[in-house]
Amino acid sequence: MASPRRRDPDRRARIVAAAVEVIAESGPQALTHRAAALRADVPLGSTTYHFADLDELLEAALHAVADRNVARLRQWAGSLIPGADLAVELADFLVDLATKHRTSSVVAYELYSAALRRPGLRAASTAWDAMLTEVFSTHVDGTVATALTAMFDGLLHQALVSPTRPVRATFEDPLRRVLVAERRLGCDGGG
């Protein structure tokens, strides 16, 4: 008599979480179906059943990380008090992303870089930037929001690769200068 099939509705999610862990530890080049299966403690066939190829698994991992990071960004944006010092708030958020949420931030940048060579990853990897720009646009004009997004990404990337622990002061002055310049342009009629 054959043994009954075990139902495992969370298997796909566990495989994706395992893929994110593999990427966090060793980078996207270390991700294989076998590595994800071992980490998720599932048979190898489960990974190929749920993900036809490695790009599909990478894309699922990227979506999971992007969704988590976008949710974190929405929570941060929702917690801003009207009239708060945006340079201070952004600097504190950068420190938080580079320390408390370092692993998630590193994985996001790893996958963001992987999208350079894998077009299937590009839509998911741009979700973070689109959300940053959307959030920043509620505080500054669209052009400045786009520039602030690029600056924020660059500052976070630098913080993640720096050998020193990031502190608010590292980020606050450059952010304030962009925000003050934006206010001056706004007062001058935009140019």
Give a brief outline of the structure.
72% of the residues lie in helices and 0% in strands. It starts with 10 loop residues before the first helix and ends with a helix.
Largest sheet: none
CATH class of the largest domain: Mainly Alpha
Radius of gyration of CA atoms, rounded to a whole number: 20 Å
Strand content: under 5%
Total count of helical runs of at least 4 residues: 10
Enumerate the spans where pLDDT stays under 50 for 5 or more consecutive residues: 1-5, 187-191
What is the CATH-assigned architecture of the largest domain? Orthogonal Bundle
What's the layout of helices and strands?
Layout lengths: L10 H16 L6 H8 L3 H7 L3 H26 L6 H13 L3 H13 L7 H4 L1 H11 L4 H20 L6 H20 L4
Helix pairs in contact: 1-2, 1-4, 2-3, 4-6, 4-8, 5-9, 5-10, 8-9, 9-10
Can you give a write-up of this model?
- The protein is elongated.
- Helix content is 72%, strand content 0%.
- The chain has 10 helices and no strands.
- The protein is mostly helical.
- It has 2 domains: 10-52, Arc Repressor Mutant, subunit A (Orthogonal Bundle), CATH 1.10.10; 68-187, Tetracycline Repressor, domain 2 (Orthogonal Bundle), CATH 1.10.357.
- Residues 9-69 form the HTH tetR-type domain.
- One of its GO terms (molecular function) is DNA binding.
- It holds the Pfam family TetR_C_31.
- Residues 32-51 bind DNA.
Question: What keywords describe this structure?
Answer:
elongated, Tetracycline Repressor, domain 2, disordered C terminus, disordered N terminus
